[in-house]
Amino acid sequence: GNHLILAGPGSGKTRVIVHRVAWLIRVCMVLPEQIMVLAFNRSAALEIRRRLWSLVGSDAAGVTVQTLHGLAMRLTGTSYAVAIDHGESIDFDSVIKHATQLLHRAEQGDDTGPSVQRDRLLAGLRYLLVDEYQDINAEHYDLISALAGRVLNSEEDRLSLLVVGDDDQSIYAWRGAKPENMALLKEDFHNLKVIKLEQNYRSTS
User: Mean per-residue pLDDT for 24-36?
Assistant: First the structure.
């Protein structure tokens, strides 16, 4: 199913992500290649990879852990190295919008149908987990919901979505991040289960 984890500072947001992945692999016998974890920045992605390796060892190598921008570049075939060679800069906002458009076109499909098109883009992906969800903006949300297959009728075409975020925090409000994006999840994913983690384990009493 789909889950929204509302968690404050020090309550274990990243821990939830990595242990969920470990549970999928070791208990549910899900193939690591069927799991993707999205982080907001590279340092967060590296921390998730480090924790996964400590939990599940080499199985962590098969799990895709990347940033939202890295995902968009992969879907659109955008190369940072090629851009540097040509002396060009990358408009990451445009890349994210382009990736979302590709996913929407795959949803609409053609003679081959949406499932085949999405499989080409997603390469067998079945589980999507998003860390620090409070930092995403409207364009990021469009990409995540399109990737999850929100508007698709077939359960087989939709991904199992789990997002973790702090609905009291919005340090990237200047970039369009806002708590209302969490409310959108509740509206758009009707079978969404909301769980709250309210204990702070990081701070002393």
Answer: 96
